[in-house]
Design brief:
It is a single chain. By secondary structure, this protein is of the alpha+beta class. It folds into 4 domains: 95 residues, Thrombin, subunit H; 93 residues, Trypsin-like serine proteases (Thrombin, subunit H); 105 residues, Pdz3 Domain (Roll); 80 residues, Roll (Pdz3 Domain). The chain is built from 7 helices and 28 strands. The protein is globular, with a radius of gyration of 30 Å.
Length: 471
């Protein structure tokens, strides 16, 4: 009986092992198929940039030394990867790979591994998303890869293809480790990235991240590594982000940007305490552009935005980036604290105005026109203040004032701890109620711009908070 049981277990083990081996072989065949499909469509990029340096060199003239400025020009080279996205030979890659290039050489490998070299030129790009499109100088028809229309999921197989360190084409595998990842590399900020443990190294930038169908789920863009070599954390720009800007890049047009029309300052604990809100994350609205989507939605100065599309606003740049990387017409849902009311509001983004456009920032639809007041003077905490229409103007600030370095001459204090400076008669009550050791929130206007400044001065020292970028 024991022998029979052991024999049955052995048969079951062999069957399970055979089944597992068969499944592994199927996965291997799929990898083989994807690698064969990607090989002729993933290219190596060699980029030449022209740089120049200027030196002061001595020049001898009749026994005299005369300094002369000389400029020397030289070429620098870089490497990267790219993927062909249509039969005409348009290549998708990272913007940082080809930025400033004077010449771009493309190497394409056929199914047998034989390489052919072409020259290419820049067609269009998007520095914000770190994407660029090149065009191969040829009338040949090229194999190409398609963008995956469906979103990747955590746990999906992920296959990275590229030319690391300028070597031959390599193919590595892993999974999608996370979605909506963010990272900052050499001053460039990335958001909404796919994180993968498929090996990505320098030179892989611009190559594709593929699924098991051989479709592109992302464009490899960055790694996180203390040593500079792969450490299990690679990042790719999702295909959905690529698709949103690809038509403009192919046409060589400037990519249109979404615009909300507000300026934010990051909320800090002092501000939160003075405003009576429990959250310490979010941004407080400094100003609202007249006629902007935020203005039409009724957002006003002093409102607090804590989330956009369900993602927290942790610093002032967050909302700027999320609107900047969206398209005009996209809908964004904001979570807003306005007074004691917390609400969710959907807003349709407009097109970001050009640099030459005249945009007037106001306090939003909450603007009130105050009647004129007689100018009057008042002194407080080393400040000489004068009331004018709109608030208390700082006439002078003593060098030993606790507020020196926070406020400056010409600032108009419009409110203190949310209490409006509406008249000269109100100034003593407004300012004398302040305890700097407990923290104070100033709502001021400086050089035509509104801003919130929080100050906590337990021992004569404090910290200033500056407004963030306008979104």
């Amino acid at each position: 009986m024991i022998k029979k049981t052991a024999f049955t277990a052995l048969i079951l083990f062999i069957s399970v092992a055979a089944g597992t081996q068969e499944e592994a072989y199927k996965v291997q065949q799929t990898f083989n198929m994807v690698a064969a499909k990607a090989k002729p469509a993933v290219v190596s990029l060699k980029v030449v940039r022209e740089d120049a340096e200027t030196f002061i060199e001595p020049e001898f003239f009749f026994g005299y030394i005369i300094p002369r400025e000389r400029t020397y020009r030289y070429d620098t080279q870089g490497v990267g990867s790219g993927l062909i996205i249509d039969p005409e030979g348009h290549i998708l890659t990272n913007y940082h790979v080809v930025e400033g290039a004077s010449r771009i050489k493309v190497s394409v490998a056929d199914a047998g591994g034989k390489e052919k070299t072409y020259m290419a030129s820049f067609s269009g790009g998007d520095p914000a998303l770190d994407l660029a499109v090149l065009k191969i100088h040829s009338n040949d028809r090229f194999p190409y890869l398609e963008l995956e229309p469906l979103e990747a999921k955590v746990g999906d197989f992920a296959l990275a293809v590229g030319y690391p360190f300028g070597f031959r084409q390599t193919f590595t595998s892993g999974i999608v480790s996370a979605l909506n990842a963010g990272i900052k590399v050499e001053g460039r900020k990335y958001e909404k990235l796919i994180q993968t443990d498929a090996a990505i190294n320098q030179g892989n930038s611009g190559g594709p991240l593929l699924n098991l169908n051989g479709r592109v789920i992302g464009v490899n863009a960055a790694i996180f590594s203390p040593s500079g070599a792969f450490a299990g954390m690679g990042f790719a720009i999702p295909a959905s982000e690529v698709r949103s800007v690809l038509p403009d890049m192919l046409a060589g047009r400037e990519v249109k940007r979404g615009w909300l029309g507000i300026s934010l300052t990051a909320l800090d604990p002092v501000m939160a305490a003075r405003l009576g809100v429990k959250t310490t994350s979010g941004g407080i609205v400094n100003a609202v552009a007249k006629g902007s989507p935020a203005y039409e939605a009724g957002i006003a100065r002093g409102d607090i935005i804590t989330e956009s599309d369900g993602e927290p606003i942790e610093k002032e740049e967050d909302l700027f980036y999320r609107t900047y990387t969206r398209r005009p017409g996209d809908i964004m849902e904001l979570t807003i604290i306005s007074g004691k009311l917390t609400k969710k509001q959907k807003i349709k983004l407009a097109e970001r105005p050009g640099r030459d456009s005249s945009v007037i920032y106001t306090s939003g639809r909450a603007d009130k026109v105050r009647p004129g007041h007689k100018s009057n003077a008042y002194s407080w905490e080393g400040l000489d203040l004068r009331f004018e229409e709109g608030g208390a103007v700082v006439e002078r600030i003593s060098a030993d004032s606790k507020l020196f370095g926070y406020l400056k001459r010409g600032d108009t204090i419009r409110a203190v701890n949310r209490t409006t400076v509406g008249s000269f008669a109100e100034m003593p009550n407004v300012f004398d109620a302040v305890n700097l050791a407990e923290g104070v929130l100033f709502d001021i206007e400086r050089d035509g711009d509104g801003m919130f400044i929080s100050v906590l001065v337990p021992e004569g020292k404090g910290r200033r908070y500056k407004p963030g970028p306008k979104t």
